[in-house]
Amino acid sequence: MSEKLEVGSIVEGKIVRIKPFGAIVSLGSLQGLVHISQVANSFVQDINDHVKVGDIVKVKVLSIDEESHKIALSIRDALPKEERQPKPQHKTEKPFRKPNQTQKPASPAEEYFRPQSSINATSDFEEKMKEWAKQSNERHTSLNKRTNKRSN
Question: What is the mean pLDDT of residues 52-58?
Fold first, then answer.
């Protein structure tokens, strides 16, 4: 099966079928699969946006399974090196902030993980427990009323 192909080699093939999970590529007498995750550097929602039947593509041979006669291929790994990896994004420097400028509010996650003083945390906990107990008693009373109405 792999007389012509070697793992790691880059070959040219023709897309003969497209499935939701990938594209079947003809490599002469053999066929291989380019999984949808191996089509492009970015997330691929619909493979039809990137390739179509009849396209000639360069693919890299990722693996060859002699027993199951499956060949795994990659279009993105066959791209030139500068196109293969996304360009690094440089962080822009934060603009100088005057001391009297207000900072933007913290995100909910930052608020959640912000350390709190133990006094404040205890009083908050006690208030929450009182509220919970009140709601629980109200629900219990409501359930008892419904049960009493059914039994009468």
Answer: 93
Q: Model pTM greater than 0.90?
A: no
* Three-state secondary-structure class, residue 72: strand
In sequence order, which residues have a C-beta less than 8 Å from that of residue 48 and are 6 or more positions away?
18
Could you tell me if 63 and 4 are in contact, meaning their C-beta atoms sit under 8 angstroms apart?
A: no
Residue 34 C-alpha from the chain's centroid:
19
Of the candidates 14, 10, 30, the one whose C-alpha atom is nearest the C-alpha of residue 84 is: 10
Burial class (CB in 10 A: 0-12, 13-18, 19+), 144: exposed
* Identity of the amino acid at 88: P
- 88: in domain: no
Structural domain contains residue 85? no
Between the CA of residue 100 and those of 94, 104, 106, 107, what are the distances in Å?
16, 13, 18, 21
Please tell me the distance from the alpha carbon of residue 143 to that of residue 152, in angstroms, as a whole number: 15
